[in-house]
């Protein structure tokens, strides 16, 4: 006997439920849970320019494997999408090779160098938002100009907040682990300082402002207060910041990401931010690299881990099953809220999961080219059975 449970669909009547079921392939007997297709507003699909790390084809296949039917792809590419001409190769690849909806970001500044605004107006009809992800916009006047333009164009500024003057060559959190093991640390102020500046500018300009991958307690509090003041700000964090902290670090490149895993109190502040609505959504910051690039330890490995194929089962296992948040809240964080903020339609998108399946995180099963994850070998509950994008099968077990 097959049982189907629907969670996360607003106003789901019997007719709509029947219509959604009609898109599904034949499923075996068992108990399955149907969710709206997940939406990740922060991924790196590496193409054009770095296809040895990932391609739009492999990235979108990995996303579908993880239950995602819409993703927003960051612009640290080659060429950087800072003009329509430079954006076009990515648009062509998306059209020809993606199995789900892939929405590109346009860069905020030319070549993400922070010196000159990109051609925002020219790109606006073709991009989901603007970001210089991977690099913080260092100059206040440049960010102010970008926010004014984005406000005029009706687009979100999604900011990677990082003050280069405070980095000092750091590569993990400037905390107990770094001190104990002789590593150079990244201070939390390098993140929360630019957030505070940008929130002031968002208040001044009226721009829709989104903060990428927050990781520290100060960031949570600054955003919490800004929301109380009515600033048009949202933010995301990532699964690894919600499930790990610096005490979980190992001398392995698969534990190196930017921002880094921070202290226990930062981890706890993020969970509190989820509970009170300060944190609007969870994004994976899926950032694949080659095996060689991730094999050089904490100091010399490239920043970034993969996560789009493991996000839901890790969060379900680590947060929902432990009673930290409800399943309905998780679906809002990874499917509903991201679409609302970035105005991404759901179409006939759904993903079906077996929430009784128990397994472990095994990078050998990833469809992504990237395999580096700090969760390798972790026990998880939940397995994706199939993912439907716009009525068509994007992934099937």
What does this entry look like structurally?
By secondary structure, the chain is of the alpha/beta class. The chain has one domain (2-396): TIM Barrel, CATH 3.20.20. It has 13 helices and 14 strands. Strands 1-2-12-13-14 form a five-stranded mixed β-sheet. A four-stranded parallel β-sheet has the order 6-9-10-11. A three-stranded parallel β-sheet has the order 3-4-5. α5 crosses α7 and α8 runs parallel beside α10. The longest helix is centred in the middle third of the chain and has 17 residues, at 189-205. The two termini are 19 Å apart.
Could you provide a short overview of the structure?
This protein is of the alpha/beta class and 397 residues long.
Task: Name the descriptors.
397 residues, alpha/beta, TIM Barrel, 13 helices, 19% strand
End-to-end gap: 19 Å
SSE order: EHEEHEHEHHEEHEHEHEHHEHHHEEE
The percentage helix is: 25-40%
Proper CATH architecture: Alpha-Beta Barrel
- Over all CA atoms, what is the radius of gyration? 20 Å
Mean pLDDT comes to 97
Note the total helix count. 13
Q: Approximately how much beta-strand content do the residues carry?
A: 15-25%
Lateral arrangement of strands in the main beta sheet: 1-2-12-13-14
Largest pleated sheet: 5 strands, mixed
Number of strands: 14
Which CATH class is shown? Alpha Beta
Instruction: Identify the quaternary structure here.
Output: single chain
- The CATH superfamily is Metal-dependent hydrolases
Please name the CATH topology.
Answer: TIM Barrel
Structural class: alpha/beta
Shape: globular
Q: Give the number of domains.
A: 1
pLDDT under 50 segments (min length 5)?
A: none
